[in-house]
Design the sequence.
């Protein structure tokens, strides 16, 4: 069965461009992202990896460690990273797993045989400090992901892990949020003494806490 939200993510040992890694130990008490790439020296992956390298300070600021995966040998990663720097203007600055034996991609269900027997799909796993899966995305090989959107979801996950709120459609940092329906008005008055806007009894809008 595939990995589901709330599951503890599988631990593994892998060879990466930053040396051998034991995944749970590497995560430590940080948030983490593990994301797969169909194959080295492919165009969409090249653009994605350059963009994640550009955004690395944003992941760091949120205490999120980033690890990529490609089902190629380690000695093929270095030359590809040179290409990425040359074409995208950013050198890959996070570990990439060389998953030539597909151990990790099989463990995480990143190979979807009806899409391709040999390449991974574009998976993203966002993992909490408790090592449980908080969010997963699956894109086909031909569609590049939007890593600004992944940062946005991390902002939502980190906010909603700390406060009794949920984030509405298209939410961005600083926008109003929703008081979770499980919080009674009485309990909400204690959490949000400045009050809220009631659109419906189940739809109560409040300024983003902590800002
Ligand atoms: C790519 O990463 O560019 C790619 C990989 C497989 C199919 C199409 C595009």
Sequence:
């Amino acid at each position: 069965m595939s990995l589901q939200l709330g599951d503890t993510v599988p631990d593994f040992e892998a060879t990466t461009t930053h040396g051998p890694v034991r995944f749970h130990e590497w995560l430590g008490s940080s948030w983490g992202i593990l994301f797969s790439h169909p194959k080295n020296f492919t165009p969409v992956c090249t653009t994605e990896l350059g963009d994640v390298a550009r955004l690395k300070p944003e992941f760091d600021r949120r205490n999120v460690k980033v690890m990529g995966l490609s089902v190629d040998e380690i000695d093929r990663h270095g030359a590809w990273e040179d290409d990425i720097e040359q074409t995208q203007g950013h050198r890959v600055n996070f570990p990439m797993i060389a998953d030539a034996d597909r151990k990790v991609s099989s463990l995480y269900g990143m190979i979807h045989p009806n899409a391709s027997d040999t390449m991974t799909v574009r998976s993203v796993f966002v993992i909490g400090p408790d090592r449980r899966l908080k969010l997963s995305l699956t894109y086909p090989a031909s569609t590049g992901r939007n890593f600004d959107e992944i940062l946005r979801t991390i902002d939502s996950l980190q906010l909603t892990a700390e406060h009794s709120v949920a984030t509405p459609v298209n939410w961005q940092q600083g926008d109003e949020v929703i008081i979770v329906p499980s919080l009674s008005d009485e309990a909400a008055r204690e959490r949000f003494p400045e009050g809220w806007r009631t659109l419906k009894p189940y739809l109560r809008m409040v300024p983003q806490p902590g800002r």
About this structure: The longest strand covers residues 31-37. The helical segments are 23-27, 43-61, 74-88, 103-107, 147-162, 185-191. The domain at 164-206 is CATH 3.30.1020.10 (Antioxidant, Horf6; Chain A, domain 2). The radius of gyration is 19 Å.
